[in-house]
Design brief:
The chain has 3 helices and 3 strands, in the order αααβββ. The chain is an alpha+beta fold and 133 residues long. It has a 3-stranded antiparallel beta sheet with strand order 1-2-3, covered by helices on one side.
């Protein structure tokens, strides 16, 4: 009886069927997390770049354009410059400083990887253009 059990256990240890499934079960969650992480970092960088472009365009509009004379008009212009996601005009602040018209923005960014993170980040951008009447 012992010989039969030893023979069965040796055969079981030498059997390689199903090892690919076990390896895939161990590796795929890590691979998917890394892929989604790269996608989310790219999305965050894209949103940051779009926010920076919008703030810069709004500061330029406030500094040189007659259609952007009030803070509300400048913030509305900034909202119109955002492409691909929505931002409220309340996320933009417009001030007049020594450097000229300064437009700043802060937008919350939440990672969309479920069960991995619950943290939020704030994307911020600012631009200041000298006022030219």
């Amino acid at each position: 009886m012992m010989r039969a059990a030893r023979h069965y256990l040796r055969g079981l240890a030498a059997d390689r069927r199903g090892s690919a499934a076990v390896e895939a079960a161990l590796a795929l969650p890590i691979l998917f997390t890394m892929c989604f992480g790269v996608i989310e970092v790219g999305r965050g960088m894209w949103m940051q770049n779009s926010l920076m472009d919008a703030v810069d365009a709004a500061a330029r509009c406030g500094a040189v354009s007659a259609s952007c004379t009030t803070s509300a008009q400048i913030a509305t212009h900034a909202v119109g410059q955002i492409k691909g996601f929505s931002v409220a005009s309340s996320n933009f602040t417009v001030t007049t400083e020594a450097c000229g018209i300064k437009v700043a923005a802060s937008v919350p960014f939440k990672l969309k990887i479920p069960a991995i993170t619950t943290s939020n980040f704030n994307l911020t951008a600012q631009s200041c253009r000298p006022y030219t009447p």
